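Researcher: Re-running this chain for the archive, since the previous output was lost when a drive failed. Same request as before.
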Amino acid sequence: MDVIRNTERNRFELLHGGKEIGTLAYSFDGDVTVLERIEVEEQFSGQGLAAEFTEAVLTQMRADEEAVIPKCPYVRGYILKHPQWRDVVPPDVELSA
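Model: Regenerated structure tokens:
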């Protein structure tokens, strides 16, 4: 599994064997990145790829010192279940299920 950031299309892409099998679209709110919507192809569902994809994106964003607003319900839920990622969310952003 590879995760690349496609800045031209404002999304992260999940690649398997060089083929795109998922995306995580983002936008910007000032200098904060808003994670909008994650999608993984249905044939790959149930394999934990959305969680791995989310973690890879958050790892990249933390390394780049980017703050994120998890608008996507899946990503927000992931951060709530894994509080070690709360530091990438600005302190004034309320996270709720």
